[in-house]
Amino acid sequence: MRLFHWTSAKSVFMPEFDAEHRNLYRIADDLRKASSAGAPSEVMIPGIRALLAAVEDHFTHEERTMRTAHYPLLKWHKRQHDTVRKSANVFLARIETGDSQAAADLLVFFAEWLKNHTSVTDIMMSAFLRAFARSRFARVARVA
Questions:
Q1: Residue 122: pLDDT over 80
Q2: Residue 39's CB: how many other CB atoms inside 10 A?
Q3: C-alpha span between 39 and 48 (Å, rounded)
Q4: Can you list the domains of the chain with their CATH numbers?
Q5: Residue 105, CA distances (Å) to 3, 13, 65, 111, 112 in order
Q6: At what angle do helices 102-116 and 74-96 cross, to 10 degrees?
Q7: pTM summary value
Q8: How far apart are CA 136 and CA 124, in angstroms?
């Protein structure tokens, strides 16, 4: 079983977030392949930093969108993002000190977290955001 394999079943039904999720899966799978091939830490570090930057960009996008829509579960959702932020820093520190297992550990952690987060937390968020967008559109249509 591949840790990072995107399928339409993983969609949260918001094209911009689905595209970002697909990108995270792609970057993480490239890192998994390098790790499985025995790439040393110094080779893995730039890719891991790229993954973490993409994760941060995605989290920032989601959080900004939730804030704009006054999503009532924003704090809960953001705490889940913060868990990844903190854990990623711990894994990165291990990787930078040459821990040969740390990159694989990070990828296993991230795969499980991403699967669980997108299938519950992001689905809830996207349902709210789609309803918010429909209600805004309906208000605009009534005014026009």
A1: yes
A2: 14
A3: 12
A4: 13-143 (1.20.120.50)
A5: 12, 30, 31, 10, 11
A6: 170
A7: 0.92
A8: 19
Structure tokens at 90: 């711990």
Nearest to 125 by CA among 25, 1, 18: 18
Confidence at residue 60, expressed as pLDDT on a 0 to 100 scale? 98
Mean pLDDT, residues 138-144 taken together = 58
Six-digit token string for 61? 């996008």
Q: Which two tokens stand for residue 54?
A: 């993409």
Instruction: Report the C-alpha gap between 105 and 80 in whole angstroms.
Output: 19
pLDDT category, 52, cuts 50, 70, 90? very high
Alpha helical stretches, state H, 37-73 = 41-68
Per the structure block, which two tokens stand in for 98? Answer: 């040459």
Instruction: Find where tokens 């996207």 sit.
Output: 126
Per-residue pLDDT at 100: 87
